[in-house]
Amino acid sequence: MQDNQLPWIEPTQNPWQLPLLDLRPITQTMIASSKDPVFAENALSYAAEDGLVFWNRIPEGKLNSKVNLSYKIDGKLEAGVLFSPDCMEHKWAIFFDGENIIVVRSWLRELVFLAKTEQKDNVLTVHEIMGQISDSDAPNFIAAVFNFLILSHCLSEVVPAPLPAGLENDTENAAYWAFSLFGNLAYVGSFDENLLPKSTATLRSHTLLHIAAAKSDLAAIEKYINQGFGINAFAGDGLSPLHWSSYAEGVVAMKMLIDNDADPNLLSLDGTSVLMQAVEANKSEQVEFLLKSGALVNLVDERGFSALHRAAEMGHTDIVKILLQYSADKSIKIDSHTALSLAMMNKHNEIVELLDN
Prior knowledge:
Serine Threonine Protein Phosphatase 5, Tetratricopeptide repeat; eight-stranded mixed beta sheet; 2 domains
């Protein structure tokens, strides 16, 4: 037995009822770095990446693995981004071109897997994966790695990372291997080559329409609307394209979306309206435009808080004035708080004067 062995989690102590290697002492403490500035630049290059540059490419590894993997979707999975790395400890970027899931090594900007999919009855099914990590990969290991990437990266599930045979008695190196491949999204690992965890979470993309809306790219917005992208579809973060348009400056993207039937009162999956989001961002122009475009001023989120609650609590005086001009209800109370009480609690005296009359 080698020194520095990592702890095991007994089958009776985990949902998969298998012996799991606890990778956290290494994967959650290591910091990824590279002496090669190109790798570092690549790893952090995905903030505005829509994935189009990787479309129509073929992986260098030509192994074709027949698999049977399925994931829950909401009607239709639109082309876009499934996972975008935002730190050096994220080792993958994952995109969808409408037919294929495209899996890229983030540091290398290299296409590794191309998975053919079909969509039916709110399920996306993968039957074939082209590509491999090493020449010795077997199809069942490819399936396990791909499935882990979808669940851990795209669906934020904590599931066992697949570990290669031969390292069972060298657990420290197994954890280093896991970190090199999966970064800090590997928490526990399994040497069971047939383990394919499932998820009940819904797989959603940051669609190309969402990305165009955030960039205020009117030509792209028009293009994707004409291609049939869902105008009120939710992205992986639970927001609609109209929500994403609030990240842009100005209202031109909002106007184009609303003119094409985007719902100004659609609540995100966590219960936030676009108006509430614009209030929180202190964007007066967007707030007024939304109100003129049919946004309900007294709409409340799932907790019962209105846009006025938010503006008063955050000290956004100009927005409070706009909301009051559009008949915001000062009497709405939730958890014993009105907008006035929140302004008083946070000592926003000018807002207190506006509301206390």
